[in-house]
Design a protein that fits this description.
Number of helices: 12
Oligomer: single chain
Strand content: 5-15%
Low-confidence stretches: 131-137, 339-355
Order of helices and strands: HHHHHHHHHHEHEEHEE
Length: about 400
């Protein structure tokens, strides 16, 4: 723990302070070795100390000029050997310089530096002649030692690059997770907005029609007026219930509210008929169960289409057909009144007075892998037709 703390403090030092500290440590050991030499060899003299000063001064710029520093310190080390001054730690400055070349460079530079340093070191060893300990191994050993700091620096640099790559991957993964989370939030907002639009548009339109009926019949037919207001109250309660279930998504991680199903179309049709529009319903979905998402999508499309009949058409009759074949569910809503002017393809951003009904139907159908077509019917009326896949529907 103490060693890790010391390493952390050393890394926190400014570069110039760290370099001077390295020069000081190397200078202590190299000076001590230069001052004490092997008996029978040349002792320290003016040239020895001059080479030491030049070597240490060059070492101070090892970060900025690593290759020139290797050349200077290597020349000083070779100068000591050729001058006849032998020491165990006189090559310490060039060792630090070689390590810096590898740790701050690339593999190609490290390779060329190793080849040149080993060649020069071997040539100097041959020139000097012999070693008092192992005369036969002198050239080989002198060619190997420059490769050790280069190899160490290469290992350290590679480890740093790997750590940096791992950190970059982790950062990219975090960014990807954040983007995915934001995308899901946007999708959920669109889904909730679409649900709220479907609920409010249908219910408020029906309530408006029923309130108009109640107002017109208030004096002439109080019973009709009472029935219409009763239906208004029931529609309002149903809208509040659906809104509460939809908005619960914003308060909890997952909504437990049941999705609308096709067996609720009778109630939907009854609510529309209470507003004065007669609706005929044909439902032929077979005995096999449909995916819940397909049923909910079909229900919402019928709901929005009938809402548009009430809001945008003077139709008195609408026909709803929900049929199923082997691979798809077909939903069709046709009215017999003069429709409002609707574009064949809705704009990306509809005008404020047009609403989002057709866009919402199209988005719902596309979300489960289907599609919606709509447009005026020859002779009057408007048709909405959706085809939804019953196998492999998107959840």
């Amino acid at each position: 723990m103490t060693f890790d703390r010391l390493v952390a403090r050393a890394r926190a030092l400014p570069p110039i302070v760290a370099d001077l500290l390295v020069v000081a440590v190397v200078g202590v050991f190299t000076t001590a070795d230069a001052a004490v030499n092997e008996p029978g060899y040349r002792q320290a003299d003016a040239l020895t100390w001059a080479l030491l000063v030049v070597s240490l001064a060059a070492l101070a710029g090892r970060r900025r000029w690593p290759v020139p520093v290797v050349c200077v310190t290597g020349a000083a080390c070779a100068g000591w050997a050729l001058h006849g001054h032998i020491g165990e730690l006189l090559n310490l400055p060039v060792i630090v310089a070689l390590y810096t070349v590898a740790v701050l460079g690339d593999r190609r530079r490290t390779l060329w530096t190793g080849v040149i340093a080993a060649t020069v070191s071997g040539a100097v060893a041959l020139k000097v002649g012999r070693d008092v300990v192992n005369p036969q191994g002198l050239p080989v050993l002198e060619m190997v030692w420059p490769l050790v700091p280069l190899l160490l620096g290469e290992v350290v640099r590679t480890r740093r690059e790997l750590l940096a790559e791992y950190a970059a991957r982790a950062a990219r993964a975090e960014e990807d997770r954040e983007r995915e989370a934001a995308r899901r939030v946007r999708q959920e907002r669109v889904r909730v907005a679409r649900e709220i639009h479907d609920i409010l548009a249908h219910t408020v339109s029906a309530m408006t029609v029923q309130a108009g009926v109640a107002l017109d019949a208030l004096d002439a037919a109080p019973e009709v007026s009472r029935q219409a207001m009763t239906q208004v109250r029931a529609s309002g309660k149903e809208a509040v219930r659906e809104l509460r279930a939809t908005l619960s998504v914003l308060r909890a991680a997952e909504s437990t509210a049941p999705a609308p199903r096709l067996d609720q179309l009778d109630e939907l049709v009854a609510g529309v008929e209470a507003g004065g529009v007669r609706v005929s319903l044909r439902r032929d979905t077979g005995d096999a169960a449909l995916p819940a998402v397909v049923e909910a999508t079909a229900y919402r499309i019928v709901q929005e289409a009938l809402t548009n009949v009430v809001k945008h058409s003077a139709a008195r009759h609408a026909a709803v057909s929900v049929t199923r074949d082997a691979t798809r569910l077909t939903v069709e809503v046709v009215d017999d009144g003069p429709p409002a002017q609707q574009p064949a393809v809705p704009p990306a951003v509809p005008p404020a007075d047009r609403g989002f009904g057709l866009i919402g139907m199209r988005e719902r159908a596309v979300a489960v892998g289907g599609g919606v077509t709509y447009g005026p019917v020859p002779g009057g009326g408007f048709r909405v037709r959706a085809e939804l896949p019953t196998e492999g529907a998107a959840s």
